[in-house]
Amino acid sequence: MILAAGKGTRMRELTNELPKPMLRVQGKPILEHIVAGIVAAGIREIFIVTGWRAEVVENHFGDGKKFGARVAFGRQAVQDGTGKAPELAKDFIGDSPFLLTYGDILVPPETYPQMLRRFGEGDFAGVITVTRGEDATKGGLNFFDEQFCLKRLVEKPSREQLEQLRRDGWLKPGAPAWYNAGIYIFRPALFGFTARLQKSPRGEYELTDAISAMVAARQKLAGLEIQGCWVDVRDPETLARLEGENIQH
């Protein structure tokens, strides 16, 4: 499942006509890089949640045949956060585990098979990927136990919250701060938690709130550090930088 409904307002005029996941990186839409990586990992059934300029995505991928996959779409009529978007794919998913990614995250293609292997290592409700060294105030901060299973998630912590986390011993000097990388594996049990979501203080339904509820319900989520280059294509500067880099996509 790929979440590709947002406009990407930080891209300014670049997304007036295109949804952000359809902006090109080295000649191909971001979304096409993602689909190619997922298909190479052996996942052949893909559901894309569209919203802003939905028809651009739908026309590009069609039924998915030319990309070696079966592609289906669901339109998120109101872009009210990442928490409710997955529910559009509920019937498509059925009772199968599924990989979920945001439509603007680029990773080395081997990330996807690594996730599948990690998921198979135990009786997990899912896998949550992380990267180190990012600005934690822009995303989720994750804390793990000795088995590298999720203990706690703090979404977009303020400077004050970060100080409190240091005082309480969650953030330790010299230890990595694990930043949520936006790619997951879940069992369909996730939908039981997204169904109960309340809007966050930002006025959105947050997927990370559903994940926190899963942890509180003792659902075991395995962590996995992404190896190599992880890019959240969040702004025009990142997009421009990618053009000059050697990315493996």
Description:
There is one protein chain. The chain has helices spanning 30-40, 54-61, 90-93, 111-119, 159-167, 190-194, 207-216, 236-243, and strands at residues 2-4, 24-25, 28-29, 45-50, 70-75, 98-102, 105-106, 126-132, 140-144, 150-155, 178-186, 221-225, 231-232. With 249 residues, it is of the alpha/beta class. It has a single domain (2-243), classed as Spore Coat Polysaccharide Biosynthesis Protein SpsA, Chain A. Strands 1, 4, 5, 6, 8, 9, 10, 11 and 12 form a 9-stranded mixed sheet that branches. A hairpin with a 5-residue loop joins strand 9 and strand 10 (150-155). 40% of the residues are buried.
Fill in the keyword field for this structure:
alpha/beta, Spore Coat Polysaccharide Biosynthesis Protein SpsA, Chain A, single chain
Structural class: alpha/beta
Q: Helicity level, as a percent range?
A: 25-40%
What's the number of structural domains? Answer: 1
| Proportion of residues in β-strands | 15-25%
End-to-end CA span? 19 Å
CATH architecture: Alpha-Beta Complex
Quick one: how many beta strands?
13
Oligomeric form of this entry?
single chain
CATH class: Alpha Beta
Identify the overall geometry. globular
Q: What value does the average pLDDT take? A: 90
**Poorly predicted sequence stretches spanning 5 or more consecutive residues:** none
Corresponding CATH superfamily: Spore Coat Polysaccharide Biosynthesis Protein SpsA, Chain A
The CATH topology corresponds to Spore Coat Polysaccharide Biosynthesis Protein SpsA, Chain A
Number of helices: 8
What is the succession of H and E elements? EEEHEHEHEEHEEEHEHHEEH
**Rg calc:** 17 Å
Largest sheet descriptor: 9 strands, mixed
